[in-house]
Write a structure and sequence with these properties.
Residues 1-20 form the signal peptide. The protein is mainly α. It is built from 8 helices and no strands. The protein has one domain. The model is unreliable at 23-31 (pLDDT under 50). The protein binds heme C. Heme C binds next to helix 4 and helix 6.
């Protein structure tokens, strides 16, 4: 019984310990988690609304699925994730995604300037201009 009562203390110590580890270990990309690039909530919300439909493992859009799968990205190793994020940055800079033809019939899926800025800040690891 004595041992059990120490469990909560051990848990607190463990939490404090892990919080003390500097988050900057992902050196070249401050926002990206080095283990798995879990998407920040604001990024995820935009992606889910405007990108995920074509870019997920079950997508019927074969071309889109082959080029980018957000689930795989979240599970990917850092180097691979960074390469994919580079591609995402390119597409965003060109304003190429979602595809123009798709937007013709789904104008509500167009990224706003603010959404593009949020995604770019994440994919490049840089802060938004306004911050
Ligand atoms: C209507 C479906 C659709 C939506 C929505 C969509 N995409 Fe795509 N995406 C595609 C298709 C199709 C391709 C492949 C284009 C090609 O090969 O010409 C693609 C390719 C890409 C690529 C890979 C480019 C390359 O050359 O490797 C990236 C990155 C990408 N999309 C990002 C996004 C982002 C970010 C969003 C949301 C803002 C998004 N897409 C929304 C269909 C979609």
């Amino acid at each position: 019984m004595k041992k059990l009562s120490l469990l909560p203390v051990a848990a607190i110590v463990a939490v404090l310990f892990f919080q003390a580890i500097p988050k900057s270990e992902s050196n070249d990309h401050p926002i990206l988690n080095p283990e798995a690039p879990a998407l920040p909530a604001d990024v995820k919300a935009i992606v889910q609304q405007k990108c995920y439909g074509c870019h997920n493992a079950e997508s019927k859009n074969e071309k889109g699925k082959a080029k980018l799968d957000w689930d795989a990205l979240e599970a990917a190793k850092k180097s691979k994730a960074l390469a994919t994020m580079g591609k995402i940055t390119e597409e965003l800079e060109e304003g190429a995604m979602p595809p123009a033809r798709f937007l013709e019939s789904n104008p509500d899926k167009k990224l706003t300037a603010e959404e593009t800025a949020t995604l770019m800040a994440w994919s490049t690891g840089k802060k938004k201009k306004s911050e």
